[in-house]
Amino acid sequence: MDTKASQKKHHRDSEATVTVSYERYERRSSDAELDRVTGSPDAYFDQARQTRRASQMAEMTIKLLESKEDKKE
């Protein structure tokens, strides 16, 4: 086995594995750096969920206001 490949594999094996959203994945130093900048993966998906919910609420509000406006006419 190539020593460089062996060292790389050993390095990857030595890093911690964590559970995020019930799926396991290998933690790498780039993941930790990304988490510091963007937040954890769970935080990202929570934000996406909240954004989607806000968008749906806005659509419902617009439809409600349009229907009220149509009733006035």
UniProtKB/TrEMBL annotation:
Residues 1-24 are annotated as: Disordered. Residues 1-11 have a biased composition (Basic residues). It comes from Ixodes ricinus (Common tick). This is Uncharacterized protein.
